[in-house]
Amino acid sequence: MKKTALLIIDMQVGAARWDAPPFFGMDDLIGRLKRLIQKAPTAGVPVFYAQHHNPNGFPAYGSPDWQLITETGPQVGEVVIHKSTPDVFLNTSLHEQLQAGGTERLVIGGIQTAGCVDTTCRRAFSLGYEVVLVEDGHTTFDSPQLAARQIIAHHNHVISNWFGKVIPAEEISFRAAE
Q1: Does pTM surpass 0.90?
Q2: Tens digits of pLDDT across the chain (178 residues)
Q3: CA pair distance 178, 171, nearest whole angstrom
Q4: Full domain range(s) for residue 81
Q5: What CATH number should be reported for the domain holding residue 116?
Q6: N or C: the chain end with fewer CB closer than 10 Å?
Q7: Strand, helix or coil at 67?
């Protein structure tokens, strides 16, 4: 069985409060990710958190909106990766930390579907990780062109065709052997 890690991307207070337009299904997303986060440590699966700050705007480093959402935030000993681009690997220590732990499989969820989640899935694939995108474990908001549901479905399709597996949260299990 491949050594697995769980990566939770940008689950920050500002996203939960964002309302122009709001993130689709945010309360449900928080619940699903919380359940995955709770399952991981009991199987010895490390959890990593990405925390975004925008040098030119929202969310500003250290601001209340920048804080991680309590329900999906780190526990003692879990790693938080600070980033300022959509790619969690770019200019961060994530790859080195995953390699040091022998991680081969990366389960990914969080926000924003078309930005940080998609970019990180593709980069993880390029770095040689087996990628598992949590099908109902990422979200976005409506764009002028597409509804959030359409954006999510599109990215699930693209990732599943090239870059990894797409699996519903309730079907993801972590085993101690991983």
Answers
A1: yes
A2: 799 999 999 999 999 888 888 999 999 999 999 999 999 999 999 999 999 998 888 898 999 999 999 999 998 889 999 999 999 999 999 999 999 999 999 999 999 999 999 999 999 999 999 999 999 999 999 999 999 999 999 999 999 999 999 999 999 999 765 3
A3: 16
A4: 4-171
A5: 3.40.50.850
A6: N
A7: coil
